[in-house]
């Protein structure tokens, strides 16, 4: 395929709008920078238009269904989203022929949409975000009744069909890659690991407003989805132990995100008498994430051990590290792969141990300096999105035989990956003063104290 005719990639997402889905948006930007045309079909977020072009990416969106309830509700949600997506794929095709369809699960239903398009010469790439059989087992346990066994069997069948239809499989970690090969029958050479690494040139610590701590000395942060399998109730149990059992009134807790359990968590917070200590922000954008994770002293990864969580990469752990935020996490297989020696690990499910680890770390600024600095450097050197983007674009270059410019062509962007600097004026796009990552002492001090900078920004009066 010639460089003059850029291949067109259609990406399908059902569980989140884009660009709110950070992984998918990074993929879109990587493809665009490499010279590909990109379209996305996804549900609308609040206030989203049905069609828009953002940074050169064509976004086609449909009104999301009402929240599913029960088996029939989930089945209707899948059918509704599939039909709306199929209709929009025709709309995309009328604008411009696409050469590849990429489906991001959940659910594992879009292989059935890929099949008719493959008759038109379209390739199918499966971006494997979730293990749906493990999601079922994690939520409901191993089924004992016929109805549950049938549901699990259907999920496994859908997963097999997705793997077998795909021309290439993109896995978020090596555990998922092994499942694609061993359970899905995919040739290993047709799988590629693309981790959801943070873009450390964008995700980087700032000197945030101390008022975000709401009068506390230490702010403990949780960032992520709040579903039944995410263990966010454990954050509140740990907060209860810290505030009421240990009598520590110098702590505040912020829970950033949304999900099926948000209302239940708010009620639990009230029942535990934590409303003066816990803040729920709801959905937040990158500016608020940067501010809160920079103001916080500790980030929590409370995901309980389950068939899904143990082999899944938790984005929040890597994002905490990008902001030089010390991490306390349950010891899960892939969480340890992400965090390495840059986090404090607690045995899964031990909310008292989680609380005690938070207290010990909060009272040890030298340890926070060590973990926060090491975490930031690991995010830059090991977990960063740049090598992941190169692997991701490489899948398309190989599949289509397209000599792309790669996701980071010369001069785009001009960034020193060790420092993340693009200018001598250390301000981010929202005007926050950035921590100078070239100064190891400044980074260590920030990781320990999270204090407002007293020195003027270079180039400022």
Task: Enumerate the strands of the largest sheet in spatial order, edge to edge or round the barrel.
Answer: 3-4-2-1-5-6-7-8
Shape summary: globular
The biggest sheet amounts to: 8 strands, mixed
The count of helical stretches stands at 15
Low-confidence stretches: 411-424, 453-461
CA-CA gap between termini: 53 Å
Mean pLDDT: 91
Instruction: Give the helix level as a range of percent.
Output: 40-55%
What order do the SSEs take from the amino end to the carboxyl end, as H and E? Answer: EHEEEHEHEHHEHEEHEHEHEHEHEHHHH
What structural class should be given to the helix and strand makeup?
A: alpha/beta
Number of beta-strand segments = 14
- Please give the radius of gyration in angstroms: 22 Å
Q: Which percent range describes the beta-strand content?
A: 15-25%
Tell me what the structure shows.
The chain is α/β, with parallel strands linked by helices and 461 residues long. It has 15 helices and 14 strands. It has helices at residues 22-33, 70-95, 111-118, 132-140, 146-165, 174-182, 232-245, 262-271, 286-295, 315-322, 333-339, 351-362, 365-383, 385-400, 440-449; strands spanning 8-13, 37-43, 51-54, 57-62, 100-104, 123-128, 168-171, 191-193, 218-223, 251-256, 278-282, 298-301, 327-330, 343-346. The strands form two sheets. It has an eight-stranded mixed sheet with strand order 3-4-2-1-5-6-7-8, sandwiched between helices. The protein has a six-stranded parallel sheet with strand order 11-10-9-12-13-14, with helices on both faces. The radius of gyration is 22 Å and the shape is globular.
